[in-house]
Amino acid sequence: MKSINATHFDLIPAYPSRRDRKEHVVHAIVETPKGSPFKFALEPDLGIIAYSEMMPQGYVWPFDYGFIPQTVGGDGDPLDVVVLFERPTFSGCLVKARVLGAIRLTKNGEENDRVVAAPQRAPGVTMWTDGFDTLADVPSEARADLERFLLGYSATQGNVVEITAAVEADEAMKLINRAHKAFGKGR
Length: 187
Hints:
Order of helices and strands: HEEEEEEEEHEH
Structural class: alpha+beta
Number of helices: 3
Distance between the termini: 21 Å
CATH architecture: Alpha-Beta Complex
Largest sheet: 5 strands, mixed, barrel
CATH topology: Inorganic Pyrophosphatase
């Protein structure tokens, strides 16, 4: 079967512009929207976001979840990103997202970090995340919900997951830059 790329996610740059990169803004592609009882994931050979699995009973995604294009994380997949929207977007939605930090974790001994981001501020529109500049600004209840989800969901699949650190935006950008360079080396 010949490789198909219907949406060209691989052509979307990791950073909207050079200036955005300096301001900690990345492109995030939503795979699974907030509140979904399903997991959706990029099917790279087909270039489409596809149904992956049903979530275990009682689990729904606490925030929009996806990846940063043109990156390769420690697990060999694009770097995961959680975008803190109050309401869900949709699978395949491209978001210019402000990097707040990252939750560093290992899954079965392999690095599997999650970048935490917020949508860009919009003039004239008030969003829950407007006051967030770093991970420390995210309310403790929201962070705790996210961490419980990341640990619990993976554990139901038989994985051993450990949160190793929570890092702020500057450190998260170093992770993203490293993952972007890894993508470039693999091309």
